[in-house]
Amino acid sequence: MTLREIGKSVSDTVLKQVGRAASRLQESGSLTADVLESDNAYLVVFDAPSAESSDVQVRFVDGDVLVRIDRFRDYREGYEMRFPGRGLALDGEAELPDGASVDPETAQATLTESGELRVRLPKVGSDDHDDAIDDGDATIGA
C-alpha cells in the first residue's frame, strides 16, 4: 500500500466518522417550530427538509403536537457516500399555550414543496375555516 493510498484511506474513515457524528447530532436535536394563533385555530410550522408526505407522522398528545420524520437518502448512481451528514430520523415537539382547547380530530397537516410542515388545529367550537390551508401541497393524515 502506498503512502497516497494510506492517506486516502485515513481521510475516508475520518470523513465518514465526522459525517455520522453530524448526522447523530442533527437527529438528537428537536425540530424547531413556530406556534401561531388566529381567532379560529393554532398553526404549528416545522421545517421538514427533504421530507416526503409518506415520511411524516403527526400526533397530538396531552396538548403537544409531536412530529416524526423518517427521511431516506436516494441512491445516486456513479457516486459514493463520502460524508453522511444529514440526519434521517428527525423528531419535533411543539406545546400549545396553556388552556388551548383544540379539536385534534379535524386537524390538518400539510407538507409544502418548500419543506415546511404545517399542522393546523381548529379551536373547539370554531366553525369558520377561512384560515384553512389550501395551497395545493400534500396533505398528511394528522
Q: Count the beta strands.
A: 9
What oligomeric state do the depicted chains represent?
A: single chain
What is the average of the pLDDT values?
Answer: 77
As for the CATH topology, it is: Immunoglobulin-like
The number of helices is: 1
Q: What is the highest CATH level, the class?
A: Mainly Beta
Main sheet characteristics? 5 strands, antiparallel
N-end to C-end Cα span = 56 Å
What's the helical proportion of residues? 10-25%
**How would you write the strand order of the largest sheet?**
2-3-8-7-9
Overall tally of structural domains: 1
Order of helices and strands: HEEEEEEEEE
- SS-based structural class? alpha+beta
| Morphology | elongated
Strand content: 25-35%
| CATH architecture grouping | Sandwich
Weakly predicted, low-confidence segments? 130-137
The whole-angstrom Rg is 20 Å
